[in-house]
Write a structure and sequence with these properties.
The protein is an all-alpha fold. Helices cover about 70% and strands about 0% of the residues. The longest helix is centred in the C-terminal third of the chain and has 28 residues.
Length: about 375
């Protein structure tokens, strides 16, 4: 225990050295002080991970969640404004942060994991400052302070720190309803405030709302609402993954569900990080990562009731969406209204499947019999 206290304290000292260089001395990305500041924070992550290493199995799924959106943000948006050496240093620091988060999640310590998670989020907001995105970079300070507070609580509570578990045995319905309503509400609000006031969901893709510039309005409110909606969707995916994993019939299928959910969440966050009008390749990469992650989950559950129900709900809309996209690529039909309309059909079908799965998991948690497809 003394060793953990010492290493945690040294981690705080390294973080404060980074603060001295990057905050108080204001070392910019074009200075040597910036590189030393990034190195100091990297050392802080390493020291904190070493302090909590006993009995820990890192949850490497955190890499699938964190690395795609952060690296996409750096490569697609910051690369145009930041010189190569600091960009390379930031990329290496992203890898260190992702491994640190994997160790924190694997420790199951609530405040420690929350602290490292807040550090990762605050770093993302710093990058938002590099690309001159209004509002987001203003959250850097508060989120960073929250991270330090959580880490301090973890330091002083020691073995009394609460541990978290997967929610597989509990009733997920209340949380799923809240997250689902919040996600849908954010997207609907984004539609209402979209510049021009004429967003038609049957004529435009949902990702149109996340653009950084819409009809000569830069960083409109719809951009922020869409981004938050995607983040909530990623959180809902990660929250509900243990319930799907519990339905899987073999260890390999359970692992596939877990990694598929992590990839799906990472893809959704990449979509939020790289709007389509900034870099279409990075945006499409997020779409494919999210799609393949969700597909892996479905294939792993193909021999179960949730998997069969998913195929029944999603397959018709997905086939129509794919057909519409193919016909548009062959210049047989125009892009809208077919392609955007079918996209909305897939989204609504997916939400309906998630809701039925949540009701089934809730019934199972209460010990009641439930209908099987």
């Amino acid at each position: 225990m003394k060793q953990r206290t010492l290493l945690m304290t040294l981690g705080f000292a390294a973080a404060f050295c980074g603060d001295a260089l990057l905050v108080f001395m204001r070392c910019g990305v074009r200075t040597t002080g910036f590189l030393f500041g990034v190195l100091a924070f990297s050392c802080a992550h390493i020291l904190w991970a070493a302090a909590n290493r006993h009995g820990v199995r890192p949850d490497w799924r955190a890499l699938a969640v964190v690395v795609p959106p952060v690296m996409g943000l750096l490569a697609a948006r910051a690369a145009y404004r930041v010189p190569f050496p600091p960009l390379l240093a930031a990329s290496a620091y992203t890898a260190v942060s992702a491994v640190s988060l994997a160790a924190a999640v694997g420790s199951r310590r609530v405040f420690y994991a929350l602290g490292i998670g807040c550090l990762v989020v605050s770093d993302v907001f710093i990058v938002c400052g590099w690309i001159r995105a209004p509002f987001w970079h203003k959250l850097t300070g508060p989120v960073y302070v929250l991270a330090l507070v959580c880490m301090a609580v973890s330091l002083f509570t020691r073995d009394r720190e609460p541990r978290f578990r997967d929610g597989g045995g509990k009733n997920p319905l209340p949380v799923v309803l809240v997250l689902g309503a919040l996600c849908a509400g954010l997207f609907l609000a984004a539609m209402l405030v979209c510049p021009g006031g004429n967003y038609n969901p049957l004529m435009r893709m949902l990702s149109y709302l996340g653009r950084t510039a819409i009809k000569d309005v830069y960083y409109p409110l719809s951009h922020y609402l869409f981004t938050l909606g995607m983040a909530v969707g990623a959180a809902a995916t990660l929250y509900f993954a243990p319930y799907f994993r519990a339905e899987a019939t073999t260890p390999r299928r359970r692992a596939t569900v877990s990694w598929g959910a992590a990839a799906c969440a990472g893809g959704l966050l990449l979509i939020a990080s790289v709007p389509e009008n900034v870099n279409m390749f990075g945006h499409n990469a997020g779409c494919w990562i999210a799609f393949l992650g969700g597909l892996a989950m479905l294939l792993a559950l193909a021999n179960t009731s949730p998997g069969r129900r998913a195929l029944f709900c999603l397959l018709p809309g997905a086939l129509l969406f794919g057909l519409a996209t193919l016909l548009h690529a062959l210049k047989v039909i125009p892009f809208s209204p077919a392609v955007p309309s079918m996209q909305k059909v897939v989204i609504v079908s997916f939400m309906a499947w998630q809701l039925t799965a949540a009701f089934r998991a809730a019934a199972t948690a209460r010990g009641r019999p439930c209908l099987r497809a």
